[in-house]
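Example: Pyruvate dehydrogenase (Acetyl-transferring) E1 component subunit alpha.
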Amino acid sequence: MSLNVESLVESPLAAPRPLRLIDDTGRAAPPDEAGGLTLPDPDTLRSLYRRMVVARRFDVQVTALTRQGRLATYPSALGQEACEIAAVAALGADDWLFPTYRDSIALLTRGVPPEQILASFRGDWHSGYDQNAHRIAAQATPLATQALHAVGLATASKLKRDSTVALTLLGDGATSEGDAHEAFNFAAVWQAPVVFLVQNNQFAISVPLDKQMRCRTIADKAIGYGMPGYFVDGNDVAAMYAVTSAAVENARAGLGPTLIEGLTYRMEAHTNSDDPSRYRDAGDLEIWRRRDPITRLDTYLGEIGVLSDAERADIRAEAEDLAADTRECMTRSAPVDPLELFDHVYATPRAALAEQRAFLAAELAEHAAPSDASTTAGPITAQTGGTR
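Written out as structure tokens, the predicted fold is:
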């Protein structure tokens, strides 16, 4: 018997409607779109709204600083606030976040100061914050590598029998990487307490989703690994929070990993060095502006009478204060000590490295002003703690 392969692959199945609790117009979604989800309480929604507004103002400010030449590069998350803020809000204080280079607003929402977030983007440090203090791994630039790190930590948590959950943020392009496959498979086999949240902003730099994969949704891939997968409206923070919170608690209860796909859109360029007009239609931007996550929640909260004009003004003032603080910290020159090249290289100092450090220190001292004490030679000592 011959199998008619062409009839099976003639066209991909139509994508399902994403789960959502608040629709594009700011009204409660009908039950058939909610998939059994329950709207978070008004206080939680107001908190999510405040965090999104503050995060967007930070993002816009940093993009402006980059265009002024204050930062080398910056990947904006404008339009993706619902995914990132919901993810952070769903985590407990002892849980770990594994972000990508685009997830700066997630770091901000979890309490990392702007100056420390932006240290890597201005070329000061690979990671400008104490990872252990904030329970946030370094922002990963290579695609999907942080997914493996998240699974490793989550597996260790399970072996130690503690309640720590790891959540990693990925983009749609990252799910095409072998590292993502290994992370999904290992997590499912070992039932690691990890949540994979894919922000499907529909472009891997310039490559659209339909040129990356043929499946209906990224969430559909979960069935092949043997874990739950959820396709969610990534611009509905209420739905994203409800699904992510449930996934985190399931992981904490020993029920294994979850794959969540948040359907969203990257409103800005990939980075300031990118020209998105070369590969996407400006008309798509207009469509997604009408699906704005902040406007949507603002409308809903206003309709149910729990968000006043006074509170909106208070949130805007908080956001402007943060923007001013961000501008101020980026006008200060970062201290530069070339001898830091030799720090954190080896746990146990090597003689050859010490010799190189002494040579550089002597050369710097020869050309330094008498008052410059930052480059005086000293022994290399083993340093511990978080990577700055």
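The two ends are 64 Å apart (CA to CA).
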